[in-house]
Structure formats: C-alpha cells, structure tokens
Amino acid sequence: MTNPKCTSAGPSMAAVLPVIYGMKEIPSEGWNVRYVVSITVGLLFAALFVHRQRTTAAPMISSALFRGRGFAPSVALNLVSAFGIMGSAYFTTQYLQSVLDKSALEAALWALLPSLPIGAAAPIATTLVHRGVDRAHVVTAGFAIASCGFVLLALAGTDSMWLVLVSCGVLAVGGVIVMSLIMDLAMGTVPVERAGTASSLMETGTEFGGALGMAVLGSVGTAVYRHEIPASAPDAAHETLGGALAVADRVPGLATAAREAFTSGMQGAAVAGAVVLAGAAVLAAVTLRHVSVREAPKTPEPERATA
Fold first, then answer.
1. Comparing 115 with 171, which gets the higher pLDDT?
2. How much is the pLDDT for 136?
3. Is residue 210 within 8 Å of residue 85, measured between CB atoms?
4. How far apart are CA 250 and CA 78, in angstroms?
5. Per-residue pLDDT averaged across 190-207, rounded?
6. 3-state SS string over the chain?
7. CA distance 201 to 127
C-alpha cells in the first residue's frame, strides 16, 4: 500500500525546484516566458501540495503545527534569516579570492574574523529575553542589525577588505540573534508530541532559505555584473568573474573592469538583501507581538524530612 507521506514528497519537490529555477534565471536573463512558466508551474504544485496536506489522512506536514500562533511566522522568519546569511556568503568568498586576489587559504583565514563576535550574540539575546525584553523586539533588532550589515556591504569598493569583513560580522550577529530565538519560539508553540516534526520543518526552512538566498541574490549580482562588464569583452568574461580573469591576459584592462563589475553586482545584491531583511524586521515586530512560549513544567522540590 502506498504511503501517503511518500506521495506528498513529489508535489513538494515539483513546487520548490521550478520556482527556484525561475527566480534564479529571471534577474540575469530577463523575463523569458520559460522562466515565468516555470515559476507558475511551481506555484501550482505548491497549491496542490497544500491541498493534499489539508485533506489526506496522513499528511507530511500536519496542520496542527500551525495552530500555535507563533509557529508559521517563525518558519518564515527563520527562512529569511538563512536567506540573508547564505546570500551574502555567495559574494564575500568570491570577493576575497577573486577581487582581492587572496589564496583560498588566506581567504578562509580572513573569513574567520567575522565569526569572533558571533559567539556572544546568542547568549546576549537569550539573556535579554530572560530579563523581560519582549522576544519580538529582540528578533526585530536582530533583523535590523543584519540589514545594516548588508548596507555596509553595499558601500564596499574593490579594495575594501575590512569593510567587507565588518559587514559580514554585523550580518552574522544579526542572523544568529534571530535564529537562536526563533527556534526556541517555534518549539515552544507546538504540541510536545510534534516537536520532532517541527524541528525538521525548521531545518528544512533553513536549507531552503539558504538555497533561495544564493539563487536570488546571486542572480541579482550576476545581472548587474553582465550589465557593467564591457560589451567588447570575450563571451567568457560575460558569464562570471572567474571566466573574465581566465582570459584577462589577452585583453588589457579586462581584469580591472571585471573586478569593478563584480563589486557593483555585490553592491546591488546587498541593497536587495538589506530591503528583504528590513521587511523581515517589520514582519517580526507585527507577527511576534505578544506571542508566548510554552514553559516546561517545573519539577516539584522534594519535601524535607522533619526531625
């Protein structure tokens, strides 16, 4: 007998893949009918997936998960946070290696610097919540901080290593603040017996958000790059910065032009990321207001024996 959960996996994949494909290609290739149809087909399969989850006897994702007031916003906000973190990483790694001409090892070592303040972000956020600060305010602040990181990244030039590293640190701190509190919030608003499913769904949202961030922001950066690269450059140079650097020895000035074009693309993607995270800050402030987290029952203290 066919497992209903297995038959739900097909529509879920058919919903996600065409949408990501279309959203990845449209910013760089334009509004081609093929990409619009791809997104439309994906959305139709998404509607089919939702309908099946609401009507089948054994859904892959139970609607009981979303009865808690804060769970659905938590999934969405967690996805957006991953969108920003992974979307920025798509550019910063290439920037260190291809624009600043660092080796892979040098780029990896420099990339460790932004991680230093991250260790304090989650404990500070948790402490603020425990001291009575509204969780919605802290999550909103986290998104605002992450958005500022994108703003700093948008100011970077072709020789702005420290600015890029600082922007990565600021963005990561904001993202960690959000994700540390959002996971706790999500798990505290669902029935205990569905905690495993809820955790899996949050993890799936993180992975999907990261893939979406690299696809969308990467496509925005690619579109700007192709617009900025000289029209007379070889075809390989119009594809990627790596392709341009591979043939730069044959075209005087191409390496400089390609690095400038890539930096412009990174700036454009950073502006888009800042707008998305600023919108998420507003969404968090509205949807998480007055959302309470279920507290674990306290174990009664054993009575002291009397003499």
1. 171
2. 85
3. yes
4. 46
5. 79
6. CCCHHHHHHHHHHHHHHHHHHHHHHHHHHCCCHHHHHHHHHHHHHHHHHHHHHHHCCCCCCCHHHHHCCCHHHHHHHHHHHHHHHHHHHHHHHHHHHHHCCCCHHHHHHHHCHHHCCHHHHHHHHHHHHHCCCCHHHHHHHHHHHHHHHHHHHHCCCCCCHHHHHHHHHHHHHHHHHHHHHHHHHHHCCCCHHHHHHHHHHHHHHHHHHHHHHHHHHHHHHHHHHHHHCCCCCCHHHHHCHHHHHHCHHHCCCHHHHHHHHHHHHHHHHHHHHHHHHHHHHHHHHHHCCCCCCCCCCCCCCCCCCCC
7. 26
113 exposure class (CB count in 10 Å sphere: 0-12, 13-18, 19+): middle
102 burial (CB, 10 Å; 0-12 / 13-18 / 19+) is: middle
Q: Which residue has the tokens 């998960």?
A: 65
- Render pLDDT for 235-276 as a digit per residue (tens, 0 to 9): 888 888 888 888 888 888 888 999 999 999 999 999 999 999
Residue 128 pLDDT exceeds 50: yes
Locate 291 and state its tokens.
């959302």
Residue 80: the pLDDT is 92
Burial class (CB in 10 A: 0-12, 13-18, 19+), 123: exposed
Counting beta carbons within 10 angstroms of the beta carbon of residue 27, is it exposed (0 to 12), middle (13 to 18) or buried (19 or more)?
buried
Going from the C-alpha of 156 to that of each of 101, 135, 166, 256, the distances in angstroms are: 16, 33, 11, 16
